[in-house]
Amino acid sequence: MFAYIMEVYRTNVCICYIAQMQTLVFEVYKMNMRIQESMSMYEKLNILTDAAKYDVACTSSGTARKGDGTGMGNCERSGICHSFSADGRCISLLKILFTNECIYDCKYCINRRSNDVVRTSFTPDEICALTMEFYRRNYIEGLFLSSGILKSPDYTMELIYAALYKLRTECRFQGYIHVKAIPGADQELVRRTGFLADRMSVNLELPTAEGLKLLAPNKTRKNILTPMRLVQNRMAENKQEVALYRNAPRFVPAGQSTQMIIGATPETDYQIIQVAESLYQKFELKRVFYSAFIHVNEDKALPARTDEGPPLLREHRLYQADWLLRYYHFQASELLSEENPNFNVVFDPKCNWALKNLGQFPVEINRADYKMLLRVPGLGYKSAVRIVKARRLGVLDFPDLKKMGVVLKRAMYFITCSGKMLYPTRLEEDYITRNLLDAGERLPEEVRNMGYRQLSLFDDVRFTEDGLSWKARAGGAV
Amino acid sequence: MKKIYLCSDTITGLFSAIYDAWETGRREEECGIAFRESMEQELFCEYYETQETEKKARAVESMIKRHLGRRVYWDIYHAALSGDRRKGDAILGTMLAARQIPDSTRIMEHLSHPQVERVFELSRNVGGEAHSYKGFLRFKELENGVLYSEITPKNQVLTCLAPHFADRLPLENWMIYDKTHRMFVVHEAGKKWVLIWDEGIDRSFASRESEQELLYARLWKSFCRTIAIESRTNPKCQLSHLPLRYRGDMLEHM
Q1: Partner-chain contact B241 A50, CB within 8 Å
Q2: Which of residues 75-134 of B touch A (CB under 8 A)?
Q3: Which of A283, A285, A312, A458 is the most buried (most CB within 10 A)?
Q4: B93 lies in the same domain as B198
């Protein structure tokens, strides 16, 4: 905590800055007085939570920090989920917007300028009170603060900074904070905020620059990538500072992440995972989040509204592929290609890859190297580690694998133990596909419910844009 | 004849029984451990009462730490907190198996051994439940400013939770009550936490909540409702992450 103060007092400029900040806070106070006459904390929280719920990434992982005994809070590396909402997503952080007023007009966003919704803002004090009281009752793991653009990016970023500064110094809060960097805000502001937060994220919004031009006319790709690069560079510098001085203030210790909307623009899955891969490689992101497009506005630039709901299966497949990129040493080009640009609806990307590359199987559990074990369907990275350790002490057989958490009904077609397969099976794509489907491979809802129906040209599993190609591919794979 | 040592279901009791059993046998068939509360008598066994002392427990603890390492002790300790009836045999079996292999510190990697696998399973189970409760536990503020919480865990997770919350809320007075095992953990601001066995403590104080409590409880409930996206509603997914048994003590699901 002392480190934060050191950071702030480092230059004279900063002192002027704090003075400025105080007048700003006061200004917000006055503004708030006006609003508060008509709106209680309860209503405000409802409005600003409702506006924030489309943000993904309620994660609290990546930092391990002990409390210093003078305030409240600590962080656990694995993150902690405090509840799960009715949509099955984890509630870990108090996810709110600072304000839902916005000067931009992004077509997909509920808070866009041209929408007629009730607008309100928190004050830094209200955010502090809410966070502290929720945190001490163990409701939340920390704060996720995002915001609409009030007046200008700089102005908004200043408000966010003011709230975090108060929370970290006055309230001595040491829990997790995830904050959005506002594209177009002053670099110095982003840098300062980074020293108060655990994770920062800049929303990529849409996978490609063309999509962005179409749906978010006030945002540019360049504006979004600049703060991302800034955070990356500052993190690299900070690593050296920390190596030199153990107590140097930490800059965004849990790394940065981003999110993009899936299904609002016509990109293929291949394009999307290529974007994700390059973000991981070039910007060293911790996570890329995908958010299935949800219709909240009517606009001619958006895809037509259907009654099928958001493309959840597609989002799920993208997350599966994302995991393969980060933990399983896969490359985007191995999973998909120009000719084959979308994921299989029936099988997960790893299973799909294995079926297309049967030449590399079966894999001998007692000898294969770790990276090859990772590529076996039904084997996760935890069970792969357990196998590598356990086989040093003895020969492994199928019952042992089962105990280690290997999903045998999927893995059995691809592995041998001491040269033997579990059952005599054939190593043929059609044979394995048929058996996997027969064995009650949990099919996605969309595919299971297809059953017997009148055929129609638009008979598709949730995907409207490139529906026909999906359908055709699903049929082809089975 | 197999010798079975009877003890109470506490860490001190279990470790004292291991201390006694360690003297008698080198093999799993020679000795075993059972709990007084949940014992089922077997044929061809001799039963012995264990004298439970702090000294024996400490001796076993330091022996495990010295020969098997801290990580293994962590696993064994967690397994010992489990609600499983056969945990004693599993732990003893693991310790005996560790004698057989050249590097005893790597015993937990020897997962093809049934007792080791059992300890691994129990430890994972207890660790998992403790981790869940770190998130799912809810405090409420009482009239006198004390934070109070009740939980109903299957395993004795209080000693896993206490250090976490002591680090997190060092300047607060808080207490957690384990309804299943009738135990309290109590933390006074700025001091160390203590474990207390409930022997008829009057818990009527728990219903006297502070004025602010209602306000924040209401805010939190509405937050949980609002944060869900209607078009993504998925009760099955919610159920798999948040099993019903936790929900009884959770404010937003009451």
Answers
A1: no
A2: 101, 106, 109-112, 117, 131, 134
A3: A285
A4: no
